[in-house]
């Protein structure tokens, strides 16, 4: 009974996935679901390798069969997208045995705020460098992993604070996301259930942040460890919003420091992104907090360089290049809609 129910669930999931994957692409021919060109034996061998590479363990044969079916459907999407003349590629990354619905529930946790107008200190953006990569300046800590917890908002805000702290002091210090999850609980931030980068900046302005080493990440909500919080290492003096829906202003801000940005990361293509400049379909329903750490151009495609918090075994070693200068004023996946940055005067 359990097996048949799980298989029926898998078939329903596959039907839903095909429905989601078949809309038309902007500026390209529509692509339609088709039977995989890989043999069943080849798919099973690929799945077996994937299980080993990702150290997956399933509780029984029924779950393994369900995950195999989902993996097979994701593999068909990967093959179809990669066969097109696009500036990005997909891969069977660590999320390849998840439906898109599962993926969204586990890893997306940003909550949008109403549009707030603040001062914007970076002017009109004249004479900006053609490319910026704050990693090369030493202002970006290694990619972290939020795990199966909707704490992206904490990772985004902490990365932005780590960046401005290095720019102002010359010291790159890995700071504590867990402090925000456990202690920033009165502003509307909800730990693994999601939160706001702006509210995190307000908390950090009042309380500062301790180090990752002193208050390490656990991947779940806990009680605030006030003795650890007393050992604060970094403070900020406030934050500002980038004027909404203006990629020019966003570029100006990113030329001066890493920026917290919100995006719509809910698509299956974003889930399975591997490398290149992502121009795939996505909406503007902001649901994920990330950190903009630069911009540039690759093979004629302008991009935003974005640090994610899904570990180094997703995307380009934990990063994604997203289309810049979109025809949509909100930016690719809404990246220009709700951006902010911490101040350290």
TrEMBL record:
Family: Belongs to the peptidase C1 family.
Signal peptide span: 1-26
Domain of life: Eukaryota
Ranges where the Cathepsin propeptide inhibitor domain occurs: 47-103
The keyword Mitochondrion belongs to this UniProt entry's keyword annotation: no
Entry-linked SUPFAM superfamilies: Cysteine proteinases (SSF54001)
PROSITE patterns: THIOL_PROTEASE_ASN (PS00640), THIOL_PROTEASE_CYS (PS00139), THIOL_PROTEASE_HIS (PS00639)
CDD domains reported in the protein's UniProt record: Peptidase_C1A
Single Gene Ontology MF annotation: cysteine-type peptidase activity
GO terms for biological process, alphabetical: proteolysis
Keywords: Disulfide bond, Glycoprotein, Hydrolase, Protease, Signal, Thiol protease
Source organism of this protein record: Cannabis sativa
Domain Peptidase C1A papain C-terminal: 128-343
Protein name: Vignain
């Amino acid at each position: 009974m359990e097996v048949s129910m799980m298989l029926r669930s898998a078939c329903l999931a596959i039907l839903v996935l095909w429905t989601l994957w078949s809309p038309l692409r902007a500026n390209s021919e529509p692509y339609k679901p088709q039977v995989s060109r890989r043999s069943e034996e080849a798919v099973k061998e690929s799945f077996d390798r994937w299980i080993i590479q990702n150290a997956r363990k399933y509780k029984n044969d029924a779950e393994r069969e369900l995950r195999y079916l989902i993996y097979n459907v994701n593999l068909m999407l990967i093959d179809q997208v990669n066969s097109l003349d696009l500036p990005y590629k997909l891969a069977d990354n660590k999320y390849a045995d998840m439906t898109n619905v599962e993926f969204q529930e586990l890893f997306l946790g940003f909550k949008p705020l109403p549009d707030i107008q603040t001062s914007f200190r970076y002017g009109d953006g004249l004479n900006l460098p053609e490319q910026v990569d704050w990693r090369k300046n030493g202002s970006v800590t290694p990619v972290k992993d939020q795990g199966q917890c909707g704490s992206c908002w904490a990772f985004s805000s902490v990365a932005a604070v780590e960046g401005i702290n290095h720019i102002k002091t010359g010291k790159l210090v890995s700071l504590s996301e867990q402090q925000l999850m456990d202690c920033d609980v009165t502003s509307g931030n909800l730990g693994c259930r999601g939160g706001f980068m702006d509210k995190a900046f307000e908390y950090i302005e009042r309380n500062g942040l301790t180090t990752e080493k002193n208050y390490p990440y656990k991947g779940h909500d806990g009680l605030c460890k006030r003795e650890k919080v007393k050992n604060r290492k970094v403070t900020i003096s406030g934050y500002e919003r980038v004027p909404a829906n203006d990629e020019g202003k966003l570029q100006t801000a990113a030329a001066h420091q890493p920026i917290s940005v919100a995006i719509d990361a809910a698509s299956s293509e974003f889930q399975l992104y591997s490398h290149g400049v992502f121009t795939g379909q996505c909406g503007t329903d902001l649901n994920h907090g990330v950190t903009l750490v630069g911009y540039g151009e690759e093979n004629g495609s302008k991009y935003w360089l974005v640090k994610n918090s899904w570990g180094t075994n997703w995307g380009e070693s934990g990063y994604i290049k997203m289309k810049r200068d979109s025809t949509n004023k909100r930016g690719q996946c809404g990246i220009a809609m709700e951006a902010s940055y911490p101040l350290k005067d």
